[in-house]
Amino acid sequence: MDPVPDGQSRLRIAIEAAGRDEVVVVVTGELDCATADQLRTAITALLNRGDVHAIGLDLRGLGFIDSTGIGTLVVAQRISAQVGVRLRLTAVSAFAARVLGVLGVDVILGLPPARIDTTALVGAD
């Protein structure tokens, strides 16, 4: 893996208003052990505001996620629920959808269950 130049993060986070009491957190880049604290900090700040009742996570631009990133999403969902804030995934990259589905946390995070296209399976009878 190439080193990231100083001042450039492998993770970018943008907060967009989606309604009076709802925001979308757009996450792009790599969500891993080196960057997960940035997302944790952003979500914590939103929860501490007190005026946010729903947080959508847009992971369309996520190119990589590791176990620390997945753990961060699951813990954020649990803590959000405990304080009465709905947190759910609104969009995911194909890579993230596959990883989350394999681990069984996709539905917990608000994605519909993945369906396997059996026509694409070779030798499936």
UniProtKB/TrEMBL annotation:
Stored Gene3D superfamilies: STAS domain (3.30.750.24)
Molecular function GO terms recorded: anti-sigma factor antagonist activity
PROSITE patterns according to UniProt: STAS
Residue ranges annotated for the STAS domain, each copy included: 23-105
Pfam families, per database record: STAS
UniProt similarity note: Belongs to the anti-sigma-factor antagonist family.
Name this polypeptide is given: Anti-sigma factor antagonist
Organism name: Planosporangium mesophilum
